[in-house]
Amino acid sequence: MTKVRIGLIGYGVVGRGFVAAIKKNRAVIYDKTGIELELSAVADLNIASSYDQFLEDVPFKTRDAEELVTSPNIDIVVELIGGYTVAKEFITKAIANKKYVVTANKALLAQFGREIFSQADEAGVGVGFEASCGGGIPLISVLKEDLAANNILEVCAIINGTANFILTRMTYEGATYETALAEAKTLGYAEADPTFDVEGIDSAHKITLLSSIAFGTWVDFKKVYTEGITKISTVDINFAKELGCTIKLLAIGKRTEKGIDVRVHPTIISLKHRLAAVNDSFNAVLVKGDIVGETFHLGRGAGSLPTGSAVAADVIKLSKEIVNRTAPRIPPLGFLSPKELNLTDIKDVESEYYLRFETEDTPGVLSGVAGVLAKNSVSIKSALQRPYENELQIPMVFLTHTTTGRQIDDCLKEIIRFPFIKGEPVAIRVEEEG
Amino acid sequence: MTKVRIGLIGYGVVGRGFVAAIKKNRAVIYDKTGIELELSAVADLNIASSYDQFLEDVPFKTRDAEELVTSPNIDIVVELIGGYTVAKEFITKAIANKKYVVTANKALLAQFGREIFSQADEAGVGVGFEASCGGGIPLISVLKEDLAANNILEVCAIINGTANFILTRMTYEGATYETALAEAKTLGYAEADPTFDVEGIDSAHKITLLSSIAFGTWVDFKKVYTEGITKISTVDINFAKELGCTIKLLAIGKRTEKGIDVRVHPTIISLKHRLAAVNDSFNAVLVKGDIVGETFHLGRGAGSLPTGSAVAADVIKLSKEIVNRTAPRIPPLGFLSPKELNLTDIKDVESEYYLRFETEDTPGVLSGVAGVLAKNSVSIKSALQRPYENELQIPMVFLTHTTTGRQIDDCLKEIIRFPFIKGEPVAIRVEEEG
Description:
homodimer, alpha/beta, Rossmann fold, Dihydrodipicolinate Reductase, domain 2, Alpha-Beta Plaits, 3 domains, six-stranded parallel beta sheet, 14 helices, elongated
């Protein structure tokens, strides 16, 4: 058997990209692998209206994915509908029916991956999810296979194209958050409800998966500290520029002495940081391994074709196992037995901080604020106080030396009580050059 | 069998890195793969003097690699001695004895890969060579597997750390070529005889392999246009800076309408080009696929541990095939049958050019040179003529629009005959932003 039969659930943006890839490059794929990928079935609720040339010769088209996951004529089920409910049901049923599964569903895997992967393991089938993190960038396979001889020390990533597009517009075009978001919607980079993207939840799903693979553990998505970009203003972006820095929404996973540290938040990084030049809707991931040192991987993190490319890569890899009749070469998450690793409380995570306070122009402001920082053992690396044009309040910006989230919280609680402080203080973590 | 027995030939820089990786991370690798890598034998001409802690429990140490490639107790032979002669003999013999082979030997594979891979194919054994291009950067596997659904359109790379280190020093420290080369030698980045690195030969070996994989053909190394960095001067580096550009030694493989275009030469690229920020001894590769778009991969291209990481990754991947008793999942070069693709003559390759002429300060110079360019249909994009301080001759710099190597050659032949032209003209190809 050199033909592998694919059943696709969900003919939306990514589904179309995947089908376009395997149809357009059918001969290329055969030449590279000796395998013929046959799209045997497509299930989509709107299958009647979503008809196009690529579906013409698909023998089985249905609204009912149920038929597809139980069909004896399907080898690999490709789930591209997203979401938690029916997607989970279809994947579970496909595995129960001994189908190999490929999915791009990070939200599902970040929350129910442990359950799904253990079912797949028992059934002896493979689950591919390269497309779930970083779109077209080879990433999951890099962590699982190419860097397999490494103890991974750190994964630092820009893995949400929508948030990155918005921050890029704010940084280089001076757009406000609101206009940049509106533009992202117009261009199709942001959905009508952009919550998952701008609140960092999508990034948290992805770093949950990447950190799990990297550190050989099961990261609990619910415990991953997640902070989005909705409070980032051009004022802070401009101060960051003055400091030779830029603001990015980073997803970070680090191995620490005590366990691991996994989090998503806006971050100030030097313009020399490899991630600083990753703009627009690009995604990129910096990986540090104890043997290989630093590797850096960049590409389109979303979009029909780039994501379709990753889905197709998984289908091809799993096809080889099906053809060879071998068990999956590696466990889905890339390790045999999950280690229990302590996840550092965000309050204990250490970093340098950027702080901004809006203050009245009265005597004693600097000494008041600096006094609180000193009392809480937060050491100041640099300070900047300078009036705005045409505004009464004065911004006061500090860069601190390394401190904990707890110390910063304690400072802010106290500082906010000063009568001269106007509005909400801003605290943004700073990551060292990578 | 979960134990895989490795025989290593060559305990030099990369050999030590590989052994350090599999010894230090023995438990990590087992946890990720379920496979125990046993270093069963090491052959090295200086085995007596190269003794260290990692070799202590190696059961078989010898000066004679012959014993190792024929031993029934070895599953994978790792060849890390380099060179064309004995390395080829050992690899050939290992394959004849049904051993899987891992090598970092780009010089050997670029010239004899076709023969070696076809032997391996007949014997049904796998050959891994991830470490041969880009050191620790996952690259071969990315082209062969992760981007398998793509028609690869272009591979554009900085894949020689020595040359890149030298150009970086010349660009950012103002060093001359000679002092930068001396520094590279002191730091161990350049060998006593740096010919392969600075003349682009090493890059040509690597782009021969990468292009073969990318385009599904056998690129003939001898036909790859190869030009090194020995003639690059700080004068041109400084003019490039003024133009918002930098000079890099690029290895380029492109799919064209008529076939392919593979070459190595110093190249002027915009500072916005992704490869412009790849400095020091880092390597990086920009890949363009018809489905995925652009992906970018960066890391340490050489060095004991980074290269050892890639060797170990190959050993782990091949070990899984050995354990599963499956034939290699994919052909070594990633395609079933090589296509015959026409390699464009360098004289027909089109690009923009940077030209510099040193001229006497006499009337008629600009009109003379510009006249020759016009006569040969070379269109000028921008021109710059400006006296040096304290020197009589005047540099005249042009950026041309897209033209062919042949047209430029014709111009240079004619221009050099003007009596006001001093010394050798400089012509450097310009690559568009990538």
